[in-house]
Amino acid sequence: MATLRGRVLLGWLPRDQAVNFLLNDCAFDPPIDSAAAERMWRDYRDRAEAVPERQATLPMRLPLNQAEQAHAQSFLQFLNRQGQHTIREVIKIDLSQLAVIQHVVVTEMAENYGPSVQTTDGWMRTCLPVTIKQGQIRTNFSQGPRMNSAADIDLPHAECILVRDADGKFVVAEMMRHVTVMETNNRLYLTAGYHRSFAKVSTAPTATVPSAVAALDSKTLVVPSPIQSMADGVTTMTAGLGIFGRRAALLADFFVDGFFMDVALRKKRYQLQVRSTWVAMDDTT
Q: Which of 41, 52, 65, 85 is buried most deeply by CB count within 10 Å?
């Protein structure tokens, strides 16, 4: 089985989600069972629950230098040319203090970004791109009975979706590749660009702030009701470990011994599976 090196903030996952992740998304030699997976989770869960409460505070905005201001203007102009978008502005913050909604990173993938994100210029070109990059896409089409059809579209990575272009045709498009943050409940969340942000923090010189520019989305995250039961019998708000909780995980936690677990992730490939069904319906007009 092909694997990739990864890292997970296991203690911030609910029990059932963590056990399912360890059993179905990771590879262990020798293999583990659900009881062993739960013991792993409990160890990390106890450490996460022992984290002091974190006040919801927005990271300080840092001033953009001249090069960053120029690139931010070019980036926003590029987005405007693409059509409607929700990016409000470009801001500069300490990446390590961003709250996270994704608790797993593929460290092997992040390492590939390391050389390109260490410098300010490299980060801007990689994380606030002003060009569209289209990966290779292969489509396998099949025709079934009664004019039903199917298309299996092999994708270069997971961040591809089926959309309609300006002519109304269905096309496969890569999602915009900018590193994006979103403000909700007095916290700033990293919503896109996890592997590049991880690479930036991991390659930052010791005792320096891993600051960088990012696109600030005008949208906000949907906050659930205060009482939202989880499978482990503890509510998100009570445990404080949910993304809106009192101990929400930060990007910095991926680098704190005892908080993260290094794992071998089962390598995935991605496919859009499109199905059409021919149906004759009564015309009631």
A: 41
Judged by DSSP in three states, 146 sits in: helix
Q: Which residues contact 136 (CB under 8 A, 6 or more apart)?
A: 156
Residue 225 CA to residue 242 CA, distance in Å, equals 12
Q: How far apart are CA 126 and CA 100, in angstroms?
A: 20
Pairing between β-strand 87-94 and β-strand 211-217 as defined by DSSP bridges: antiparallel
pTM: 0.86
The gap from C-alpha 123 to its chain's centroid, in whole angstroms, comes to: 18
What is the pLDDT, as a whole number, of residue 141?
A: 85
- Concatenated DSSP letters for 196-215? HHHHHHHHSPTTS--EEEEE
Q: Tell me the per-residue pLDDT of 192-219, one tens digit each, with 9 for 90 and over.
A: 999 999 999 999 988 789 999 999 999 9
Cα dihedral sign, 107-113-114-120: negative
DSSP 8-state assignment for residue 247: T
Residue 44 has pLDDT above 60, yes or no: yes
Rounded distance between C-alpha atoms, residue 133 and residue 130, angstroms: 10
Each residue's pLDDT tens digit, 110-147: 999 999 999 999 999 999 999 877 667 788 888 877 77
DSSP state of 253: G
Spatial neighbors of 229 by CB under 8 A, at least 6 apart, are 235
Q: Residue 34 is inside which H or E element, if any?
A: helix 34-49
Beta-carbon-side half-sphere exposure of residue 256 (alpha carbons within 13 Å):
16
Ranges 20-29, 60-69, 154-163: which has the least confidence: 154-163
Burial of residue 127 (CB within 10 Å: 0-12, 13-18, 19+) is buried
CA 4 to chain centre: 17
Local structure of residue 132 (DSSP, 8 states): -
Residue with tokens 């499109």: 274
